[in-house]
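Open question from group meeting: does this chain pack into something compact, or does most of it stay loose? Before anyone orders reagents, we agreed to write out a predicted structure and look at it together. Recording both the input and the output here so the notebook holds the full record.
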Amino acid sequence: MAILRASDRGYRFLVLFFNCMLTFGSYFCFDMPSVLQDVFTKTNNCTNGSEAVYSNCSDDGLGMSDADYNLLYAIYAWTNAVVVIGAGFLIDKLGNRVGVFLFSSLCLLGSSTFAAGAFLKGTSYLLPIMLFGRLLFGSGNGSLTIVQNRITAYWFRDKELAMAFGITLAFSRLGSVLNFFLTQMFEEAYGLKWTLWGGAMLCLLGFISAIIVTILDKHGVKELGDEGSLKSESKKLKITDVKHLSLSFWLVVLAIMFFYNGVFPFVADASKFIQTKYKLDKKPASYVAGAIYDVSMIVSPFLGGLIDVFGKRGYIAMSTAVLTIPVFGLLAFSYVHPLICTLWLGVTYSFAAASMWPSIPLVVSQTTLGTAMGLTTSVQMVGIGISNVIVGQILGKDDDTDDAGKLLRWKYVMIFLLGNTICCILAAFFLNVVDRRRGGILNISKHQKLLLARQKAEVNQTEEPPPELEGEEDPLLPGGPGRKYLQDGNSLN
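Structure tokens returned:
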């Protein structure tokens, strides 16, 4: 603290490191069921004489149906959808420090409850307790991501914003990648219960990181002299300010929702799909499915840096959606090796994440960013939750059809995911149309942005805002009279 000043580049990257660690463990935990799907849905070979649905005499198998398994993802998504709206507004009103403690605690509690549920194997309490754990985990993880993005947006505003978002995504995906590489081996060596508790311990690491981020953020904001102004702006924020969010924002939200509707439900079932269609063993299948996150972890920071310089966020969002169509087409109608498809999807997913999420701070103000992120995450999770349920219903029970019937059902799943991708293309197309009519904010380069900032600064030096426009009722939005903003929503003063 004595070595680095808050205005130094090293300080903000130190904040970024511990900010990234907030979600490393939670992203590891999020997709653990995907890697262990075969264990979760292992068929029931014997009963204990009771009426328990999930009785199983294997050491680890829980005997869930595919529909119940997909419900683990759906309950996470739906909880996110409900909680993150209020969470985003809460963060905007009370600040990052309250949010980071609250939501990292929920991640830890939820992952621990989920792990404890495995001890109830063979009873009717198994599924409700594990669903409750995913509910708590979903309440924390989606909201924690909002705090994480808000902290990143504050410390990297007008600087390496897209690159910082890319690095944050890379750390999260590192957790996902390690999950796909290590979880199955760990489960084979130590069993399901210890594996799930290992994930919970990684969420404890996130809670410790939350403490460090809080200290760094509090010290840095105070040293920069922004503490008073942030509190004042939070006081002005009203829930009714949501009505001022632009059409561009809502189109970004739709593009994100439809793109992720294709990616996340696929990842949730990819391992089993690859085993069924391509006859790969469990371990190679999990590695192939995890390749999506391998690519994302490696290329996201570099993509973010490039997009910071060249812009073109709207064009990239639409192009990546178009290039995702062949992925689901090949998976549905061909026997091309699945690794080609998952690597391909990893590339398009990385471009989509690096272009879509950093677009949100460009179309809303810093003060409303938490609320905007909450709304975005909510809509995204509603879509993912519905998609998971639809996928589960398409697949049905694993033992009620022959191999040909199973492959046909998987084909219908891929066609459904393809349909979501086409909807993403439409949303991104209209986003570019609207953005172009409003000045092309999403697609301007760093050089053009600096020129625009200088022009704005010159205008603001010669114009005095009327006193009657400086009241607390003024919406804190880009172009709003209460504060001067660039067209991209970043503060000038």
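Observations to bring back to the group:
The longest helix spans residues 403-437.
DSSP finds 18 helices and no strands in the chain.
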